[in-house]
């Protein structure tokens, strides 16, 4: 999680929020799985930095370096140029096909056909986030209660 949010594990306070942003529970057990927590589609994990280090980044007494998009675009050695040279400016890393419908069209706006699948059953993820295997369908207990 530290690589995703940039906060050291010891400085994180994590909360599970439902699809409406309402607090469900605090995430304090490092061994708990998403299934044991009853996580369903649309829920999110909210991470707070409790270290106080973020305040140091907001120090307005130090003048910050600023550059316009136009000036940055003209630079020959930048992350933006590197991404364009290597084809990462418009395409995600990996295409996947899901067993269940994905409610959000992740690939909307992409004009290149990378793979085919049923509508709303595909997406793009980073290769290191892919687990290959034969997984049984996941049924959320909370969704079953609603039925």
Automatic annotation (TrEMBL):
<dbReference type="InterPro" id="IPR000626">
    <property type="entry name" value="Ubiquitin-like_dom"/>
</dbReference>
<dbReference type="Pfam" id="PF14560">
    <property type="entry name" value="Ubiquitin_2"/>
</dbReference>
<protein>
    <recommendedName>
        <fullName>Ubiquitin-like domain-containing protein</fullName>
    </recommendedName>
</protein>
<feature type="domain" description="Ubiquitin-like">
    <location>
        <begin position="1"/>
        <end position="52"/>
    </location>
</feature>
<dbReference type="InterPro" id="IPR029071">
    <property type="entry name" value="Ubiquitin-like_domsf"/>
</dbReference>
<dbReference type="InterPro" id="IPR036859">
    <property type="entry name" value="CAP-Gly_dom_sf"/>
</dbReference>
